[in-house]
Design brief:
Length: 210
């Protein structure tokens, strides 16, 4: 099995970005949702994104943004990928694509249909499955998800309540392409902890040894 990729989301300052890079993160997420405690102004984000080393990806995170607003942000801070984490429909996703990570909230009654819906959209590069609307530290039923993703062709990113203490088990059950963490590596809401970031990345690598 290939190694599990790691995204550290909610990066807001240089210290957090450096900590994530030094710990071996593959991608850094920048939240462009004003209501979020992890919001970063696109111009400030660009000062961090433009300094990323080769092979470290940037992900802009949006929720229910209009296509016009999406384009405005992308002009200020172009990112490798864009994560749409709200109620965006197929038309919006196609207009914002390609290079889209489609965020879903896991619900056992709808997850099959939700995955199939976005698996069919060419502009979607990966599907992120979260336990909440995002950044709330809510876990989901890993065993149920593992069964559900078997027929899906898109890369699956696992999120929702992941921490250094549980991500190894989560990967062993789900075997996702990547994992995404935000609150699980914070010492307080919106403030990343370098030691927790390092511990999280180490825990992911342990899972990959299986």
């Amino acid at each position: 099995m290939s190694r599990t990729r790691i995204k550290i989301c909610g990066i807001r300052d240089e210290d957090a970005a450096v900590a994530a890079i030094e710990a071996g993160a593959d991608a850094l997420g920048f939240v462009f949702v004003r209501s979020s405690a992890r919001y970063i102004d696109p111009a400030d984000a660009w000062s961090l994104v433009s300094a990323l080393p080769p092979f470290v990806s940037s992900v802009g995170v949006f929720m229910n943004a209009s296509v016009d607003h999406f384009c405005e942000v992308e002009e200020t801070c172009p990112t490798t990928l864009a994560q749409l984490h709200g109620g965006e429909d197929e038309s919006t996703v196609r207009q914002c694509g390609p290079g889209i990570v489609r965020g879903l909230r896991f619900h056992p009654d709808t997850i099959d249909a939700d995955l199939a819906r976005w698996d069919a959209i060419d502009e979607v590069d990966a599907i992120l499955v979260d336990g909440s609307a995002g950044g709330e530290g809510t876990t989901l039923d890993w065993n149920h998800l593992a069964r559900t993703i078997e027929p899906i062709s898109k890369h699956i990113i696992l999120a929702g309540g992941l921490t250094p203490n549980n991500v190894t088990d989560a990967i062993r059950v789900v075997r996702p392409y990547a994992v995404d963490v935000s609150s699980g590596v914070e010492r307080e809401k919106g403030v990343k902890d370098p030691e927790l970031i390092e511990a999280f990345c180490d825990a992911v690598r342990r899972a990959d040894l299986d």
